[in-house]
């Protein structure tokens, strides 16, 4: 476990880390509560998760200064599991997610992130932002104008206060002001307390109360797989962002394993699965947080606040929370992707839009990512499968040379075969592969077919310019070697 | 030897600041320009999303700065580039004050009066807190 207990990573920036940790703890509370509500569980489940994950990851994570806790991306995946099977199955799924992530870390799967195209990742964050926003709309159903006014006030404070002072976090001020107004003016609006119980106690170790049967595994496994994938995607993306913002490097495999350990612990302490958070990590870095201490302080201070101030937290009106979450969704959305839409290739835009559409339709980020990756692969195959064949007659029309340019593989062979004039009356043909590459058995099969068809027409055939890999392929599976060329 | 710092953010306003810096250097051999670019948290987010990872983002930034640097190098001016991380205003101020520049140039984004009043501006803060003379290029 290299680097976990190095002095620099823990105590290289004590003042900055402690201050940033406190700022992050304050910002985490409304999000942890809101994400619990999205998942359909008591606020405590998200708060315990945020506490456990932040504390554990500060020791075992690979990216110092990154904040992990209960997240919207993960909460959205749990909704049906909680609704259909209950909380205990969520805890079990959380533990299983952790175990799968530990395996992913041990087998160093982080490098396969590169198979996720950038436009899919942009679609991922945009879809997440849209879903967080949509989840807030539910809170407006059946509410009076007071709700709208309070949400507007919350947003106004969040966005306008920083123009006057940046000394205090504006979201915190917004929550305090709006809560105070509701309490003192005795406005009867729904509060956090109406959404579920909030106990002022530390999380306790518990073993999920589920039957240890194959059927249970069948229920939780698909959820755990989706949680594993989405959790690691967001965590590794966030790790790269923190790498960039702090101009330092991080161990992605260690982070992957760390996320797993954090989720296993969380599941046994009554918390829901979580992952790294882009927004909170940026807040941490901007507030001066760099080391592991910042994440630890964030987790501990969050729990401290709940134990001390739990009675006040339940009085926070849902309007204030909805306002904060609308801000979170606005800052999560990648607005630059709209600005660059007209410059980037249309296929990339299509992949991004399809990723978003699938997520918004299914409420499942993992399905959106899958759809995006598949569509990207199809676009790529379509682009690369364009093979150009040019030909010219030489030797007084007795010989035709075909110049082939492009990638010959399963997706391109059909078009490729159509380019040849098999029944043309020439003595010999030459196929020049100098600018081509044969990739698979479909390619080898196509070459055999071309050879056969020309021979049927009594036309001599020569191959030229095959690169080494293509030759190897033909030697292994094709009939070219028998041709003596 | 005149030491000049130009804050670059990839916009055309910053490019104008660079052009100004070039045009006011009396003798190119006697002047050096530092092109300084600051990456903040939000920039990191959008760059990593669009370029895939931190290394690629860094490479793209260096390329953008080198392109600007070449403009000045063609005039025979000695140019170096610097990529910093943090809050733009704070980072530029502490960097500028840690080196003794004879002049600092920044581009103004040309906001209207209301926007400037409400939002303030990075260039305002630079003018106020950088020890060296600061020129804001419109």
UniProtKB/TrEMBL annotation, chain A:
<dbReference type="InterPro" id="IPR052706">
    <property type="entry name" value="Membrane-Transporter-like"/>
</dbReference>
<keyword id="KW-1133">Transmembrane helix</keyword>
<feature type="domain" description="STAS">
    <location>
        <begin position="401"/>
        <end position="485"/>
    </location>
</feature>
<keyword id="KW-0812">Transmembrane</keyword>
<feature type="transmembrane region" description="Helical">
    <location>
        <begin position="45"/>
        <end position="61"/>
    </location>
</feature>
<dbReference type="Pfam" id="PF00916">
    <property type="entry name" value="Sulfate_transp"/>
</dbReference>
<dbReference type="InterPro" id="IPR011547">
    <property type="entry name" value="SLC26A/SulP_dom"/>
</dbReference>
<feature type="transmembrane region" description="Helical">
    <location>
        <begin position="319"/>
        <end position="336"/>
    </location>
</feature>
<keyword id="KW-0472">Membrane</keyword>
<dbReference type="InterPro" id="IPR036513">
    <property type="entry name" value="STAS_dom_sf"/>
</dbReference>
<feature type="transmembrane region" description="Helical">
    <location>
        <begin position="261"/>
        <end position="283"/>
    </location>
</feature>
<feature type="transmembrane region" description="Helical">
    <location>
        <begin position="368"/>
        <end position="385"/>
    </location>
</feature>
<feature type="transmembrane region" description="Helical">
    <location>
        <begin position="18"/>
        <end position="39"/>
    </location>
</feature>
<feature type="transmembrane region" description="Helical">
    <location>
        <begin position="119"/>
        <end position="139"/>
    </location>
</feature>
<feature type="transmembrane region" description="Helical">
    <location>
        <begin position="145"/>
        <end position="164"/>
    </location>
</feature>
<dbReference type="InterPro" id="IPR002645">
    <property type="entry name" value="STAS_dom"/>
</dbReference>
<feature type="transmembrane region" description="Helical">
    <location>
        <begin position="89"/>
        <end position="107"/>
    </location>
</feature>
<feature type="transmembrane region" description="Helical">
    <location>
        <begin position="221"/>
        <end position="241"/>
    </location>
</feature>
<dbReference type="GO" id="GO:0008271">
    <property type="term" value="F:secondary active sulfate transmembrane transporter activity"/>
</dbReference>
<protein>
    <submittedName>
        <fullName>Sulfate transporter</fullName>
    </submittedName>
</protein>
<feature type="transmembrane region" description="Helical">
    <location>
        <begin position="171"/>
        <end position="189"/>
    </location>
</feature>
<dbReference type="Pfam" id="PF01740">
    <property type="entry name" value="STAS"/>
</dbReference>
UniProtKB/TrEMBL annotation, chain B:
<dbReference type="InterPro" id="IPR014729">
    <property type="entry name" value="Rossmann-like_a/b/a_fold"/>
</dbReference>
<protein>
    <submittedName>
        <fullName>Universal stress protein</fullName>
    </submittedName>
</protein>
<dbReference type="InterPro" id="IPR006015">
    <property type="entry name" value="Universal_stress_UspA"/>
</dbReference>
<comment type="similarity">
    <text>Belongs to the universal stress protein A family.</text>
</comment>
<dbReference type="InterPro" id="IPR006016">
    <property type="entry name" value="UspA"/>
</dbReference>
<feature type="domain" description="UspA">
    <location>
        <begin position="1"/>
        <end position="138"/>
    </location>
</feature>
<dbReference type="Pfam" id="PF00582">
    <property type="entry name" value="Usp"/>
</dbReference>
């Amino acid at each position: 476990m290299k680097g976990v207990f190095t002095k620099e990573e823990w105590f290289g920036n004590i003042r900055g880390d402690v201050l940033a940790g406190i700022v992050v703890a304050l910002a985490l509370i409304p999000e942890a509560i809101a994400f619990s509500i999205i998942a359909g569980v008591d606020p405590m489940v998200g708060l315990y998760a945020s506490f456990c994950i932040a504390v554990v990851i500060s020791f075992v994570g690979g990216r110092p200064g990154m904040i992990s806790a209960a997240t919207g991306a993960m909460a959205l995946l749990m909704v049906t599991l909680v609704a259909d099977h209950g909380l205990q199955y969520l805890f079990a799924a959380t533990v299983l997610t952790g175990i799968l992530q530990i395996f992913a870390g041990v087998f160093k799967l982080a490098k396969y992130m590169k198979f996720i195209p950038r436009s899919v990742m942009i679609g991922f964050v945009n879809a997440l932002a849209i879903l967080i926003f949509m989840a807030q709309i539910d809170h407006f159903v059946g509410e009076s104008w007071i709700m709208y006014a309070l949400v507007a006030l919350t947003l106004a404070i969040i966005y306008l206060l920083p123009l006057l002072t940046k000394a205090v976090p504006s979201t915190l001020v917004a929550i305090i002001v709006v809560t105070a107004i509701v309490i003192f003016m005795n406005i009867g609006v729904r509060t956090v307390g109406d959404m579920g119980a909030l106990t002022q106690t530390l999380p306790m170790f518990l073993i999920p109360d589920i039957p240890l049967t194959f059927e249970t595994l069948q229920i939780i496994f698909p959820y755990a797989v989706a949680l594993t994938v989405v959790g690691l995607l967001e965590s590794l993306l966030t790790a790269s962002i923190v790498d960039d913002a702090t101009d330092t490097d991080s161990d992605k495999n260690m982070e992957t394993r760390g996320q797993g350990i954090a989720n296993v612990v969380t599941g046994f302490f009554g918390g829901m699965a979580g992952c790294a958070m882009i927004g909170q990590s940026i807040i941490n870095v901007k507030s001066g947080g760099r080391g592991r201490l910042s994440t630890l302080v964030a987790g501990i201070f969050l729990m401290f606040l709940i134990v001390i101030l739990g009675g006040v937290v339940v009085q926070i009106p849902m309007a204030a929370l909805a306002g904060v979450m609308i801000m979170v969704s606005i800052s999560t959305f990648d607005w630059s992707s709209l600005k660059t839409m007209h410059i980037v290739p249309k296929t990339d835009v299509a992949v991004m839009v399809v990723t978003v559409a699938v997520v918004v339709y299914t409420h499942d980020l993992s399905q959106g990512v899958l759809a995006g990756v598949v569509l990207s692969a199809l676009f790529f195959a379509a682009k690369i499968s364009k093979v150009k064949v040019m030909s010219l007659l030489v030797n007084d029309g007795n010989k035709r040379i075909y110049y082939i340019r492009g990638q010959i593989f399963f997706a391109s062979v059909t078009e490729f075969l159509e380019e040849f004039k098999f029944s043309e009356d020439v003595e010999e043909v030459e196929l020049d592969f100098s600018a081509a590459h044969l990739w698979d058995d479909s390619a080898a099969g196509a070459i055999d077919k071309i050879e056969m068809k020309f021979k049927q027409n009594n036309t001599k055939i020569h191959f030229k310019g095959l690169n080494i890999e293509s030759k190897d392929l033909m030697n292994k599976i094709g009939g070219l070697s028998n041709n003596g060329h | 030897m005149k030491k000049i710092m130009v804050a670059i953010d990839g916009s055309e306003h910053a490019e104008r600041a660079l052009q100004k810096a070039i045009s006011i250097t009396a003798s190119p051999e006697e002047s050096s320009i530092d092109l300084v670019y600051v990456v903040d948290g939000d920039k990191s987010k959008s760059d990593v999303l669009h370029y895939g990872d931190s290394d690629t983002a860094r490479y793209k930034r260096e390329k953008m700065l080198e392109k600007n640097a070449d403009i000045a190098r063609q005039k025979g001016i000695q140019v170096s580039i610097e990529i910093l991380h943090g809050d733009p205003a704070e980072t530029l101020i502490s960097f500028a004050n840690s080196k003794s520049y004879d002049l600092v140039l920044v581009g103004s984004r040309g906001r209207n009066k209301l926007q400037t009043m409400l939002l303030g501006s990075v260039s305002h803060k630079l003018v106020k807190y950088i020890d060296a003379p600061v020129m804001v290029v419109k």
